[in-house]
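Changelog note: in this version the structure field was regenerated for every chain. One regenerated record is shown below for reference.
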Amino acid sequence: MSFLEVLYFIIPSAIFYAAPLILVAIGGVFSERSGVVNIGLEGLMVIGAFVGILFNLLYADTFGAATPWIALIAAMIAALLLSLLHAVASISFRADQVVSGVAINLLAVALSLYLVKRIFDKGQTDFITERFARYNVPFLSDIPVIGRLFFTSVYNTSFFAIAMAFVAWFVIYKTPFGLRLRAVGEHPMAADTMGVNVVRMRYVAVMISGALAGIGGAIYAQTITNDFGHATINGQGFMALAAMIFGKWHPLGAMGAALFFGFAQSLSIVGSSIPIIQEIPNVFLLILPYVLTIFALAGFIGRAKAPLANGKPYIKGQR
């Protein structure tokens, strides 16, 4: 197998593995740009994955091929509602944001697995029949080398995730909403003085974070695992959190970091089919994404500058 054939094998896989991470990482950017740390991205992904699969199984006969897309909306709503718990605890009650996020992670896993057991009477759901389809992009897939790398056998969800990164960049850096969002994350008292409602902005940011994390979880479950169980979401939310930090709290930086982690994750899955890599013990390939996550944070977290008010509850009138 030539080097180019190896790329043909890995790159498309890396892109669709990265798509959920991109969305969740961007959700983290919105939350933390407003000053609210969201460790609960993993739990929000779990709820999104569970609701997405459940909706798909229940309504596949009703909506047909559109079911996976409508399931994303259901997952988005469910994760958004769960993120409100984090918002209430962190913003209104000024609880420790890390503790609140960890509680969201624990609650999401426990609740989803309990409901799976009650509904399906086993430890995981059935496999879905309505899935996102792969296709070749007309004209673009015919371009030599590039066409086969990026536009052959792709999911629409990959393009959706990349498009959302650019939309998030535009919203955060080119709109009045984005200016207010960054203001409450950098200097909430100054923003409040200028008439910005800090509490409302932070609530909106956390809800956007939850919505994107839910969509990311549902995409992951409906493109990669096709069912839901205890190991469906297994650290991907923390990878997205690492991608957000690695990308320096910038939507496009987070997308690039998520693509990097998606590459590592795809390598751990498809590496056993590549002649050179298949000689490496499988256990090393499986831990590769998590090891790279640690190395990335160890190497870059010191150089990445978080929003100044990130993790700090805002008390009106307090200096």
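Spot check on this record: The mean pLDDT is 90. DSSP finds twelve helices and two strands in the chain.
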